[in-house]
Design goal:
Layout: H1 2-10, H2 12-19, E1 22-24, E2 35-39, H3 46-52, E3 58-63, H4 71-83, E4 86-89, H5 95-109, E5 113-116, E6 128-129, H6 134-142, E7 146-152, H7 154-157, E8 171-174, H8 190-208, E9 212-213, H9 217-224
Parallel strand pairs: 1-8, 2-5, 2-7, 3-4, 3-5, 6-9
Antiparallel strand pairs: 7-8
Helix pairs in contact: 5-6, 6-8
Length: 228
Amino acid sequence: MFYWLMKYVVIGPLVKAIFRPWVVGRRNIPAEGGAILASNHLSFIDSVMLPLMIDRRVAFLAKSDYFTGRGIKGWATRMFFKGTGQLPIDRSGGKASEASLNTGLQVLGGGELLGIYPEGTRSPDGKLYRGRTGIARMALEAHVPVVPVVMVDTDTMMPIGQRLPNVVRVGVVIGEPLDFSRFAGMEGDRYILRSITDEIMVALQRLGEQEYEDVYASTVKDRLKPKA
């Protein structure tokens, strides 16, 4: 109930009135059943704009730090993330990664939409980077299609590090679902997982025409960090 209240009463109408977001390809979202929405990731605001532009509920996996803050600010942040359909996960790796996978599978198993950023983190410079193979494993284990989604100009609306958004019109482009059922039962093959992930990233690149670089975004971010 809180999700729909935020979407249609509290946040949604205000955001739509100010930023006038547009969407292309909404019919490509399956009317029912589980599916993964694989999106590029340009801005913090992506996880807010995408759910506003489609009719079905979308759950995102968000780092658990957003849900553990203290005081009024921590409470407000926690309520905001819960209200926008985000689920807390531990991104520290190892068993935490497995727990994240299981959380995503529970969402998909319940017949819901799961939003995933294959790059694993926001693009530091607007380019599209190499995808992480967790999305492929999840698609095969849950037996669901993957719908490519491109966010447009959200990095101009809310650049990394900026707290208040610029009044810029942003958009969402939704591509046709990708079916990977031909690889059923092969989720343990890392070469298959890489092939599927690369196919998803190619679909995103063609849909959004972003410049692509075949390295992980996290690697680029590490390079950009000031040296001690």
